[in-house]
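Structure tokens please, single chain.
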Amino acid sequence: MASVINAGPSPGMSADGAKVNMAFIAAIVAVATIGGFMFGYDSGVINGTQEGLEKAFSLSKLGTGLNVGAILIGCAFGAFAAGRLADVWGRRTVMIIASLLFLVSALGTGASHTSMVFIAFRLLGGLGVGAASVLCPVYISEVTPANIRGRLSSVQQIMIITGLTGAFVANYILAHTAGSSTAPFWLGLPAWRWMFWMQTIPAGVFFFSLLAIPESPRYLVAKGKEAEAEKILSRLFGAGQGAGKVAEIRASLASDHHKPKLSDLLDPTTRKVRLIVWAGLVLAVFQQLVGINIVFYYGSVLWQSVGFTEDDSLKINILSGALSILACLATIAVIDKIGRKPLLLIGSAGMAVTLGILTWCFSTATTVNGALHLADNTGVIALFAANAYVVFFNLSWGPVMWVMLGEMFPNQMRGSALAVAGFAQWIANFAISVSFPSMAARSLPMTYGFYALSALVSFFLVQKLVQETRGKELEAMEG
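Here you go.
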């Protein structure tokens, strides 16, 4: 009997036993997660193009860091603006705008002939990535039943990694076919430019798919469009469920029914930032301080710097992407059973250990003809530790951070809290990514030692600040 009670409702049933429309939910979740794919592709396409950028624009190491990291400034402002605009224009409308930004950015970056023009188009793409990063998970959380919300929201991370891996595969095929990333390809243009132009295909798919899905019912209730919200909720959660859901959402909004605003993030009594907001900021910032995007942005450069060829380095990127997807699938299997917080703690501990091993490996590197070199055995250990680190991240902080940001905040403050957390996440991403080339040039062991220390600190912060959200309805979230 205990096992039956603990099992909870089946995936096709909501927490109160009502039969949900899983086909409809799956379809709109699939569309929303294309935003995750675009997030991943636009972030990962830069990996493998650095040599082409350096030659085309005559870049220094700092210049390379700025061209690689430019997208992240756009991401920060895109996340902040999207979180706020989503409360004004709606989740779906802002995602449609993001899809158009992806398209324009892909065309412009591939055609750029100066560093400043390239950076401008990467900033535009960053606005789209930032918007998708915060709105896709929150949209998914707002249209799915509580008992399977974690599993469906985790699909976002799989699509991010699929996008990254898709970029790695496309980059590898283009570079391998042309001979190198800087060799001429179609129309006599270098392969690295086509790496950016390939993104126009999924960007177009994302735009047209978004036209077929409904607006978030929780946004509609907040805007007073309750009849429209009830219709969508009845289609999602079953006939007769719409009116009750609308009443629950209405009750969860501020008692004075004011429009969502940034000041909702402050405790009305103390006027200090709410603890739940600090918890969200910790999750957002430390997901970047552990250095995961160094693997995705600079992976090929890093592995080449310790003795691997460009061809082998691009293959290692693909391996890392495949392992990431498998780890995310494992997360989907357990996140609604064991919860979010245990996965975060497991991930923090695992990343601290594997990053510590990488720190030791790089400390043994020698310099041969001006380039770093790892002994054969140490190189194997480093490769194993790096991929184990990627697995731990994507088993935990990768998907779980986005799941929690999409669900942990009360309805009234969700858009504003996501704006602030998303902005902080991308600023941290920018700081880590832009600083890596110069930090690594000074000391690769010290750089990875910092990431290892951040992973260790994150373990204790999660223990203290993060509250479990497994199985709770969004209307029951407290701040």
